[in-house]
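Protein: Reverse transcriptase domain-containing protein
Species: Dreissena polymorpha
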Amino acid sequence: MNFGESLIQWVKLFYTDINSIIINNGFFSHSFNIERGVRQGCPLSSSLFIICIEYLSHHIQSNKHIKGISLEPDEEIKQSLFADDATYCLNDNYDSFHNLIESLTLYGMTSGLKLNKSKCTVLRVGKLKQSNVQYKKEMKFNWTSDEATTLGITFTNNEKDTVLKNILP
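Structure follows.
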């Protein structure tokens, strides 16, 4: 991405030699330096996060070793991102899952963002829905063949059930 020197200098101005305080129940903490990350509530924070997460998104989308779910002969869906929530749609191949986890881990090491494993649910669909397969057991993801919820939408292995859980009262 080429943002130009002017924009880069403005971002550096806002994020170089900054400090902050915490207000808790009306009490102010001592001032402390912010050494990494962005300040909560800063108008630039969400834009900078989106720029950073775009690198991960592009890497996953262009990675030929991560196979998504085919929609048409030449079309597939791999991911859906909204702010810091991500949903990945992969085929039933272990290599796709392994390469996705490797990509997320590498991104975490370079960005400081970490996968919250306790919030990760893997919904088995298609051929895997009747199985008990669990790739990368050491990651301790929640594996299910029943349903998974992302961004308030519940997905099941049955189209009718998915509609009932999300649309009808």
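Remarks: The longest strand covers residues 69-72.
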